[in-house]
Fold:
Amino acid sequence: MSEGNGAATYAPDIKELGDKIVALTVGKAVELGDYLEKVHNIKPAAGGVAVMAGPGPGGPAPTEKPAEQTEFTVQLDGLADPAKKINVIKVVREITGLGLKEAKDLVEGAPKPVKENVSKDEAAAMKKKLEDGGAKASLK
Structure:
């Protein structure tokens, strides 16, 4: 690569190789990654060869499922039963480790997040604890 007046120029073989890689379908890109790994012992970084271009000559790329959410936020939406406010404050303190005043402010300021970036199972358990204690809760 040489830099003259700010525009980069590339050797013809590099241009040709780059154009071929960009034109790969997802299936062919995976096949290329497997070939490089098995034949040349080159492991693709971060999950294989990335193809940034749209569908190539092989037709449209297959649709991929969206990634499953792995981190959740447990949100306190309010009190299901105002008479159980003290129970809800106790549960919030248990889940978050907050002091009495902070937990009370959180419960009175609902809707507010109680705990963020927790696993699905942990979030479901927290939501159940909150609901059993008399709160309305949701997962985001």
Residues 47-56 have pLDDT under 50 and may be disordered. The two ends are 48 Å apart (CA to CA).
